[in-house]
Amino acid sequence: MEDFVYFFTFQDPSITWVVLGITLLGIGSAYVGTFSFLDKKALLGDAISHAVLPGICLGFILAGEKNPVYIVTGAFLSGALATFLSSWLKKNTKLSEDTIIATILSVFFGIGIVMLTALQKSGNPEIAGLNSFIFGNAIGISETDLMIYGGLSLTIIIVLTLFLKEFRLMVFDPGYGKAIGFPMEAIRFLFNVLMILAVVIGIQAIGVVLMAALLITPGAAARFWTDRLNPLLILAASFSIISGILGTYISFVIPQMPTGPWVVVFLSLIALLSFMFSPKSGIIFRYFSRKKYLRKTHKDHLMKALYKAREENKEGLTIEEIYELYPYQKVQIDQSIKDLLQEGFITKNQTLVNLTSQGTSDAMRIVRLHRLWELYLNESMNIAPDHVHESAEQMEHLLTPELEAMLEKRLNFPTLDPHQETIPRENHDL
Amino acid sequence: MTFDSNAFLIIFTGALIAISCGFLGVFMMLRKMSMTGDAISHAVLPGIVIGFFVSGSQRSLEVIMGAGLLGILATLMIEGLRKKAKVQLDASIGITFTLLFAIGIILINLFAYKVDLDQECVLYGEIAYLPIDLWITKSGLTMGPRITWLAGLNFLFVSGFIYLLFKELILTSFDESFSSVIGINAKGINLALMSMVSYTTVSSFESVGAILVVALLVVPPATAFLWTKSLIPLLKLTSVLGILIAILGYYLAYWLDSSIAGMMVTVAGVFFFVSALIKGKRPSWLQGTYKAAKPFGI
Lengths: 430, 298
Hints:
Chain A has about 425 residues and is mainly α. Chain A is about 75% helix and about 0% strand.
């Protein structure tokens, strides 16, 4: 608890610096990552983050120490080379995109490992700091490092905000962008530069292997809460900030813990919670809405069967007859009967089930929709009468009153469907 | 050059691993699942750590089982995120492997004082120590390097797996719907392939490291694919490449005093890029002056 208060009151200026750094970095990578996620190129970020390792080693060899300028430049150049190679391979070979990305990623990483091992065997005492690039250590960042990384993050954020419209075009409709005169290639190039920059500065805190999470996960999680771009970006950035600060806190409290993995765990936790509980597209919500829909279709089918029985001048159906109509659906039929009894649409006399007057008008609506759709498919889409039933079977649950009115108008209030059955509107149609 | 038995053992083991990975990698590539292989190789880490923690040794059955389970879990999680939560494929791969890998690193740091498991060893492996690490039976008989036996066993399993399920693997790779129609359990075959990939990852992580296994899974098949389109030559070329990579990787690493596994990947990368340069489309200025007649050309 003491640690908690000490950390979150920011008494220690170095903690303030680190938190500020990780916040800027989180916003930058979440912004860039969300765009690349929407562009369905999320894994390119993974490839770039593995690919910067040789550049980091080269920068270290040239500088002879852990000089952030050399390292950032080296990392940037090798990231750029990887991006260029992957687009070249995509254009010039028949390999699929995932193979290309996996190849680039592993080859660059392998070269990086060769250089790293060679460096380790050279016995330079500064080498210990280089290992933190693999797993990341935000606490170990010095103030000068932070100035550079924070400044670069700020640049990324500003550029992305300034060119928001252009990047939006690039992600959603590059063809249209080109047609109205935007230089789409230059925009994509600028975006790639920003993405490589985001990876390069993120690696210090998160590490080579896990950098992909900082790019992909915030956008993917935020996507479950909104369909609009601006709220999406803001949400993604805040997810990233929250997990960044929590991860830094953990590695502050437990010193041997690297920051990166904890940031990723918190981020993934937020993402998994979003996938489960999001009110629009979460797993739980969709499970229940699907259940509700299935229940409705079963009810609709039962009412339809009862209506057809009335058309044949029968006094309702027995439960056994209903079971025979829809084989293997005993449980669902029992449930539907229970539901409909409660809603007052049917009556049950011993075993005989019949529609009430309220139920009749509702059943009539379903049958009407079914037959209207059959007629529409037959007349307007030129589909043979024996092929229209399946589609109508689905559409009868979905057609809204507005659509119904449009269908009626378009078909000029017909009386018969393609199978010469009455399209019921009034009670005397029975 | 005199015959160096240690060098031979290292190259032999490296080639065995490269060939087993390459065989599986060919099918992964044909299914456009190379990145899933990458994800699995990252995701087995927590399984390795837990197995290690439970049994207290790197060479136990628990480690292999833990890693195998985690590999399958990763496959299921990717599928689950994609199908149940409707996350797009690349993002579900990215989320799954980063989460599992992060958990693995955290576990290593948590147990660091209890078990002698070095994260660098898991990540990069060190095939150079192979000749020292001998398998000695209870009666004191020295059977040769343990890792070579592991790699050999793995090679047998992988080739057996591919030999027995060859028809099913081809069918499910090229036409999943047709294979389902004629009664092949495409999902089951897929899971079996993924478990083979995770098993291969585990049995090679000590020698080449969890991450560099990916390179051996992806790069030789991709290189071979640039040269041929039919499956049998693809498999043959992949295994030839595996052997070449092992030999060149060993001697280059010896010469530069660096990581053998890393050097094997570098050599594989060189082969790949040279092939891409040769077989890729030529830039327009190399193609000469011939131009296809344009429709409605002026």
